[in-house]
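Sequence, please.
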């Protein structure tokens, strides 16, 4: 039970970091490092989601939904990184 709570806390913290990096990257003129940190947080969230499913904390149907959201966020961040490099 404590691991389930700790994993939930880690996921929540990761989502807050994603929001924070998104706001910071939007406001900064030089976005490269902030977008890289944002990409790392999205990757961490994907890993936490997979771990929650593997440990049985997240039912498969909910995992599919969460995984779809994670992929969509990853695509948006990837597009943002690509446009920032140009």
């Amino acid at each position: 039970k404590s691991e389930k709570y700790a994993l939930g806390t880690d996921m929540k913290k990761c989502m807050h970091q994603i929001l924070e990096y998104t706001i910071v990257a939007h406001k900064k003129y030089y976005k490269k490092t902030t977008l890289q940190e944002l990409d790392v947080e999205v990757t961490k969230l994907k890993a936490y989601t997979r771990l929650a499913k593997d440990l049985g904390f997240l039912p498969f149907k909910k995992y599919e939904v969460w995984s779809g959201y994670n992929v969509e966020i990853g695509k948006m961040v990837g597009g943002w990184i690509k446009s920032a490099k140009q």
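The chain is about 85% helix and 0% strand.
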